[in-house]
Write a structure and sequence with these properties.
- The chain is an all-alpha fold and about 90 residues long.
- Helix content is about 50%, strand content about 0%.
- It is globular, with a radius of gyration of 14 Å.
């Protein structure tokens, strides 16, 4: 799966879901790995803004993914990496 700039929680939820599906996991399987119910995983994918950052990091670690913080003013980062056009 490619790297995408995430600037809103509306973009984060579908990306989390896509990562989970790319690994062939159900919400129940992901939840079991990190001690959450299937219902909780569904709520997190649907509304990640209502979850603590720590919980998001836990999910990202389970999905073998990570967050990157990029200063978009830094000209050493390509315009593609900055998500130009979003």
């Amino acid at each position: 799966m490619t790297s995408l700039p995430i600037r809103t929680t509306g973009q984060l939820g579908p990306y989390l879901k896509a990562l989970r599906r790319a690994r062939g996991w159900s919400q129940e399987q992901l939840g079991a790995m990190i001690g959450l119910s299937q219902e909780r995983i569904a709520k997190i994918e649907g509304a990640p803004e209502k979850v603590s950052f720590d919980s998001l990091l836990t999910i990202m670690m389970a999905l073998d993914a990570e967050f990157h913080v990029v200063d978009r003013r830094d000209q050493s980062v390509s315009s593609h990496d900055q998500g130009e056009g979003w």
